[in-house]
């Protein structure tokens, strides 16, 4: 996979804990819980705090039962389903997340449209995967710490989404990390995977809290990689334009 930036290199980590972030994060909270945003809704900011919003489409990939739907619910601050069910088609979830850029101090709202599609549905209906790939910006590759086969399948998952002109952001997320007593994947194996693929493995698990701490690391990591990818693409485009003029 393409090199990823060091955590905190592009965005201010744990900015949600700083006093100057409260006004921004209050726009995605209601009574200390996350607001639910539909496809046409967005946070409303006062004129003196107007910020730009950047839009990204993110596909959640993984075997049935690894927690794709649960991850989307967690990132949106919604209740995690108590029982597993196979997603029958495509489900989309909108997540807004404010980020402060480290170099400029500029604040941006990241609008992440998460796409979740059931594994069996993808196999049965040929038109679903092209719809998921259309104008896609990132893929989250999921495995479960309680399902050894999902970890072993990561390389196959990543290979299916790789190509010579591929600009997708690719991140690996291990779910059900809280169930360490039942883990089928060791930390040594995770470390070896990170070294081999040059990509960190993000972890998630447990109940959704009323705060932001349980999703901040993952959302900041995703936002940072998306912004870094855009900056790299803009730089390459500028160099090509300069070369053409010369």
Quick summary of this structure?
One of its GO terms (biological process) is cell projection organization. The chain is an alpha/beta fold.
Question: Care to describe what's here?
Answer:
It is a single chain. By secondary structure, the chain is an alpha/beta fold. It has one domain (15-245): P-loop containing nucleotide triphosphate hydrolases (Rossmann fold). It contains eight helices and eight strands. Strand 4 (90-100) and strand 5 (107-117) form a beta hairpin. The radius of gyration is 18 Å and the shape is globular. It starts with 21 loop residues before the first helix and ends with a helix. The mean pLDDT is 87. It comes from Myripristis murdjan. One of its GO terms (biological process) is protein transport. This is Ciliogenesis and planar polarity effector 2.
Write the layout of secondary structure elements.
Layout: H1 22-25, E1 29-30, E2 33-34, E3 52-61, H2 68-76, E4 90-100, E5 107-117, H3 119-124, H4 128-133, E6 138-144, H5 148-152, H6 154-160, E7 169-175, H7 187-197, E8 201-203, H8 213-245
The CATH architecture can be named as: 3-Layer(aba) Sandwich
Quaternary class:
single chain
Which spans of ≥5 residues are poorly predicted at pLDDT below 50? Answer: none
What percent of residues adopt helix (DSSP H or I)? 25-40%
CATH superfamily: P-loop containing nucleotide triphosphate hydrolases
| CATH class division | Alpha Beta
- How many distinct helices? 8
Taken from the alpha-carbon principal axes, the silhouette is globular
N- and C-termini, Cα separation:
33 Å
The largest pleated sheet is described as: 6 strands, mixed
How many structural domains are formed by the residues? 1
The fraction of residues assigned to DSSP E strands is 15-25%
Report mean pLDDT, rounded to a whole number. 87
The helix-and-strand class reads alpha/beta
Radius of gyration: 18 Å
Neighbour order of strands in the largest sheet: 4-5-3-6-7-8
Compute the number of strand runs.
8
Order of helices and strands: HEEEHEEHHEHHEHEH
What is the fold named in CATH at topology level?
Rossmann fold
Protein name: Ciliogenesis and planar polarity effector 2
Pfam families: Ras (PF00071)
GO molecular function: GTP binding; GTPase activity
Family: Belongs to the small GTPase superfamily. Rab family.
């Amino acid at each position: 996979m393409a090199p990823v930036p060091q955590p905190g290199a592009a965005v201010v980590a744990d900015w949600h804990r700083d006093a100057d972030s409260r006004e921004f994060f209050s726009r995605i909270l209601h009574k200390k819980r996350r607001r639910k945003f539909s496809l046409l809704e967005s946070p409303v900011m006062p004129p003196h705090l107007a910020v730009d919003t950047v839009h990204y489409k993110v596909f959640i990939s993984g075997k049935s039962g690894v927690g794709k739907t649960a991850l989307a619910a967690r990132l949106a601050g919604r209740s995690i389903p108590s029982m597993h069910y196979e997603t029958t088609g495509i489900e989309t979830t909108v997540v807004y997340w404010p980020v402060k850029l480290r170099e400029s101090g500029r604040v941006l709202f990241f609008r992440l449209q998460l796409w979740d599609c059931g594994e069996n549905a993808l196999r049965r209906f040929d038109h679903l995967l092209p719809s998921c790939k259309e104008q896609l910006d990132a893929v989250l590759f999921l495995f479960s710490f309680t399902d050894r086969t999902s970890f072993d399948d990561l390389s196959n998952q990543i290979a299916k989404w790789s190509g010579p002109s591929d600009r997708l952001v690719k991140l690996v997320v291990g779910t059900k990390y809280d169930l360490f007593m039942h883990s089928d994947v060791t930390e040594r194996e995770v470390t070896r995977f990170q070294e081999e693929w040059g990509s960190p493995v993000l972890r998630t698990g447990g109940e959704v809290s009323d705060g932001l701490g349980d999703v901040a690391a993952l959302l900041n990591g995703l936002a940072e990689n998306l912004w870094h990818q855009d900056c790299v693409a803009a730089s390459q485009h500028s160099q090509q334009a300069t070369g053409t003029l010369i």
